[in-house]
Amino acid sequence: MLQKTTKLLVTTALIAGLATVANAAEKVKWTLATTWGSTLNPFIDSPTNMAKLVEEMSDGRFKIRIDAANKHKSPLGILDMVKGGQYDMGHSASYYWKGKDIETLPFTTMPFGLTAPEQYAWFYYGGGMELMQKAYAKHGVLSYPGGNTGNQMGGWFRKEINSLDDLKGLKMRIPGFAGEVMAKLGLTVTNIAPGELYTSLERGTIDALEWVGPGMDISMGFHKIAPYYYTGWHEPATELQFMVNEKSYEKLPKDLQQILLTAMRVSAYDMYIQNYHMSSEAWSTMLTEFPNIKVKTFPKPVMDAMKKANDELLTELKAQSPLLKETLESQEAYQKKSRKWTEMSDYLYLKDNL
Fold first, then answer.
1. Burial 63-94 (b: 16+ CB within 10 A, else e)
2. Residues marked as binding for substrate?
3. Looking at the DSSP assignment, which residues form a beta bridge with residue 141?
4. What is the pLDDT of residues 46-69, one digit of tens each?
5. Which segments of the chain have a pLDDT < 70?
6. How much is the pLDDT for 25?
7. How many distinct helices (H) and strands (E) make up the chain?
8. What residue range is the signal peptide (predicted)?
């Protein structure tokens, strides 16, 4: 009897061991859709690098196929595709969904808001991540930082902006809350997918546009049509996003969940570094090879009008949703606290050494 029991225990243990090995060797294959085309660096690099890290860290157990916008043909449909389970993941920007769900708006950036280091600190240590998950929970989607551009330039304009009257009637591509600010100042605002920007500017469908900064703008050729390049105010810390279908995530083994979270965080911050480098390099090139570019700062009366419109719209925005109000006030409180250190550590250093 003892011998039979021993054999049974050994057999059971062996089967359990084989099952563990089989489970460990199980392959997971996901798909990810991006808002970006396959050559739009560094935006496309963030999900691409994330997928490489996932595969390497999982020893090939977890693979993610990246479908760029030129493949799935729906650059501004990423939230719906991830929400509906057509894709397991997406890579886009949260403010694109403000027309579907206004509570998602603040998680990209807000005019006159947090800088990139301030915003990363808010996300990971100041309660921002928890608020973002609350906003996306109703969609069955998890959202995570997906790469930051830092402070973006204020846009390319065909003509110089010397007054508020020069803005009125202009057609401009500018997404997010900044678009609402510009609309309040009399512009006709539109949101155009990245692959259509140059053609729209060239054909006169729009008179001005904002994109990112020198690192990404130089290859787009906007300076050939609209030589006035204005400094930023509207997107001081543009954070892209990884979206994950919650049901897909819950099916993952715990170790693959952790691998995915780590890969997203690493690739997001790497994109921030990469974009900073690209802009530094590109601006050096622009200064010498494209002397027709005229760098401008919006006149003070224009900036004052933008700030006034922004404050008025924020008051209206907070009344739309308790969660939206909580998120915006969380950002404002964190900015007030962290900006004192930003001024001491960065602004005063630069002021005294430029």
1. ebebbbbeebeebbbbbebbbeebbbbbbbbb
2. 152, 173, 210, 235
3. 245
4. 999 999 999 999 999 999 999 999
5. 1-25
6. 62
7. 15, 11
8. 1-24
In the chain, % helix, strand, coil (3-state, to 5) comes to 55, 15, 30
Rounded-to-integer distance, Cα 148 and Cα 175, Å? 16
Residue 136 backbone dihedrals phi, psi, to 5 degrees: -95, -10
Domain 2-147+237-277 has CATH 3.40.190.170: yes
pLDDT tens per residue across span 190-227: 988 888 999 999 999 999 999 999 999 988 999 999 99
Residue type present at position 305: A
How far is 9 from 50, CA to CA, in rounded Å?
43
DSSP string computed for 48-65: HHHHHHHHHHTTTSEEEE
Q: How far apart are CA 182 and CA 172, in angstroms?
A: 9
CATH topology agreement for domains 2-147+237-277 and 152-234+290-318: yes
**Would you list which residues are annotated within the binding site for Na(+)?**
211
CATH of 152-234+290-318, one of 1.10.3720.10, 1.10.8.640, 3.40.190.10, 3.30.420.340: 3.40.190.10
CB neighbour class for 52 (10 Å; exposed up to 12, middle 13-18, buried from 19): middle
